[in-house]
Structures
1.
Amino acid sequence: MSAIPKNIEKTIEEFSKLPGIGQKSAERLTFYLLRKKTEDVERFGHVLKGLKEGLVYCQNCQNLSTKETCEICEDLNRDSSVICVVEEMLDLLALEKANEYKGHYHVLHGVISPIEGVGPDELKIAELVERVKKGGITEIILALNPSIEGEATSAYILRYIKPLENIKITRIARGIPIGGDLEYADRQTLKRAFEGRVEY
Amino acid sequence: MSAIPKNIEKTIEEFSKLPGIGQKSAERLTFYLLRKKTEDVERFGHVLKGLKEGLVYCQNCQNLSTKETCEICEDLNRDSSVICVVEEMLDLLALEKANEYKGHYHVLHGVISPIEGVGPDELKIAELVERVKKGGITEIILALNPSIEGEATSAYILRYIKPLENIKITRIARGIPIGGDLEYADRQTLKRAFEGRVEY
């Protein structure tokens, strides 16, 4: 549209490409930024431009890092004999925030999904198997999402690591979330909650 | 958090400053971009950085433009004797998309809001009065939002332009929106719809 300067139009376009942000929201965000100080907007642009700069996969856990070995893997206070396998770095962050787990991670960067054309080779599964084979691992915790793809990926990984001896393989518990409501829990969750019931 | 590279942390922070985007959404958007091609992310950053570059207020209608006089004001096919007063440029864009109005605009860049510390002097009201006094205007259409602030701002503007002779002053109609449902309309809207009823 001719009524709108190119800069504004392009910014709206870029915002509207983001997931969950439609045309209207993109316009609102852009005009919100237009009302902000120029330096604030420029800083945002600058930060965004450099987002992927210098990022590499940690050679150990495949977490995104600015160093060859990420800070978690380098932390000597953490137990390097336990590996928690997660789908995405976001899951790792969520677990870190819970501040419960003090071992190492392995980030797969996705799940096996034939519909989206993602096979095991697109994921960091070979790296995991390699890492486990090197030895020194006592437990592997599978912390993938309880979705069909997550389950399939867990099953795929199990096939490779189960035969390895002396390694305990676990998965995180499924059940009613804390603060959740039995009444609103779906059937699958309730089923899993019963199956996984614990004796007092 | 040490687990997360600075670039990523900063991007999440910038996204979470945007209206309607919380911490979780900011994380999701950032990790969505991390999965995109570097060039795509860099382009977004570049576009954002230059968002406010070279933008000025149109000397005529106060619309944001890259030129002293915006394209709408320069368009000789539009009726320069009619001014439609809007709060924000987003409103102008919405009206332009409706493709109904073919006159000029005047963008106030806000509404009078004592709570938010916005007085008439923060808005482009003086510029409007100045513009009208110059002459050549036959009609002023007030197209502010039907909110308390919008009404107050309209009333304030009226005080200044009502005394000027030979200018028709109108406001856009209020009523049930097209596709809207009487059943779900609020009382004020219904009241206005009755007051503004039109004879067949």
Note: Chain A touches chain B through 55 residues (CB under 8 Å).
2.
Amino acid sequence: MSFKNIVVIGGGTGSFTVLSGLKVFRNLNLHAIVTMADNGGSTGKLRDELGVLPPGDARQCLVALAESSDVLRDLFNYRFDSGELSGHNFGNLFLSALEKITGNFEEAVKTASAILSIRGQVIPVTTENIHLSMTLANGETLLGESAIATCDVISHHKVSHIELLPKTEINPKAYDAIMKADSVIIGPGNFYCSLVPAMIVPGMKEALSKTSAQIIYNVNLMSKTGHSNGWSVEEHIQQLHRFIGAEVIDIALYNTTHPNKDLIERYKEEGLPVQRDTDTSYIGKTALIGEDLIADTLFINQHKKDPIRRTFIRHDSLKLAEALYRLI
Amino acid sequence: MSFKNIVVIGGGTGSFTVLSGLKVFRNLNLHAIVTMADNGGSTGKLRDELGVLPPGDARQCLVALAESSDVLRDLFNYRFDSGELSGHNFGNLFLSALEKITGNFEEAVKTASAILSIRGQVIPVTTENIHLSMTLANGETLLGESAIATCDVISHHKVSHIELLPKTEINPKAYDAIMKADSVIIGPGNFYCSLVPAMIVPGMKEALSKTSAQIIYNVNLMSKTGHSNGWSVEEHIQQLHRFIGAEVIDIALYNTTHPNKDLIERYKEEGLPVQRDTDTSYIGKTALIGEDLIADTLFINQHKKDPIRRTFIRHDSLKLAEALYRLI
């Protein structure tokens, strides 16, 4: 059994799914590079009120990689549901309090990593306090990931420019991890809110272009209405390349199983299944590989206070991990 | 070196001081039995809003016994100082979130004990959700420790009755610890808010009467204006016996060094040094032992949002521990 260095780039539920699945393969040395642009919900409040970096995406990766008791994993995911703490996630408070004490978000992640006995490493893509800014072709500017997440006319108006403010650079530890990786896995995840904010960090294009790692893109199962209306598998690849600024993806892994019709009907206002619109095996140098990746059961433990409605058509963590493992 | 089972009863800063000091003696097996009546500050809000047991006193004992890194101890003591989390103590949130997850405060304490690598055990004196109720001789009833802590006419009107509501019983683990102890140490601490709420738990009188352990009472350095005006060492012992309901104290350890005059002047509105008013060596069966127990340096890291003003005339943790160690 040969050991492999694997980098997973993204945030939120997408990285959680990939990491939870890949964790079962004991020969993989996992590095989660985490998007750092979230400013909504519990994370947004902590940023505003305490001046800390966004803990939410890092927290989900930490929990995914945790090998501690279930109680500690549950604790890091626990959301207070009454009183003035309502909506705050305990793991977020943990990282934020530690950042206030140590003055350093990476130290906070390190301490949390030890407590949760994580397998692998969680690396913020940047350690500066940045926000995402998107300008649409009609001239409108959306400041902050939360404004972008809830905007439903991005597809209509098209994105003319997207950047992180203030000017930042890739965390050298993230750069090194990509350079030393055998495989880099991007996504799945909210395209503009989880993937693009990591792709556009200055230095990411260089890292993804220079690394000898195989680069795999997990194409989303569903498009997102208002963001990626009607995007095919092929369009997803082209769009990701557009924001990276280079054609770096070696393999795009997409789902071939059509979701249950009732579910499609139920969520058609939120998005539609992502499908192929050609029958080619390659787009440029990117190989397209289709697999059954969809979860049979619904994901039902959505928090009722969660302001962003999440799709219940999900990647199956193990199916996805097995498909990835065959490639890496 | 023989191992000894030591029980420390109280809460807050008093137990923190005793436990921090005794921890250096590696042959002591420490058990902190913690008062569970607090309903003020961060603890009170958590009780009201989440319906949890009061975490504050247990948290201070956990930190005192922690042998983990300074970062984790700092984390458990960290108090958020801005936004809607302002005033909340992280360690309290930790215990409360764990109690919500496990449904069990003792499980929460156990998990925190493991994370903090504590030496010894922290045992809630009762695991029921109780409040302290005090009736003064003028008929007025004060409900909740917080109302009692801030009432400044208790000395004037005298206490006619004090009880925990609803009816509760001593935690069997606390009872067992007392029965198996070589020494039981009570106080120092706020008389009506830290000591009495532990002494009056049904079953405590029986445990303290039946145990073969030596029982030591650390008499407070200072009286508290409105609560214990002008109480001497002797009066403290008699009052404690009154609330226990039996004369169980073998040794009362009191301070013989007069605090700095400037400090006395500065804090004279809050209280005065506790002094002897007889020259006997015994009160009933209780031996009175005087030692230099006072800290030379001020305790200055008081939190600015702390609603209860704390005295800066303190027991020296090491002097107190050394004096206790000579007795046990």
Note: Chain B touches chain A through 28 residues (CB under 8 Å).
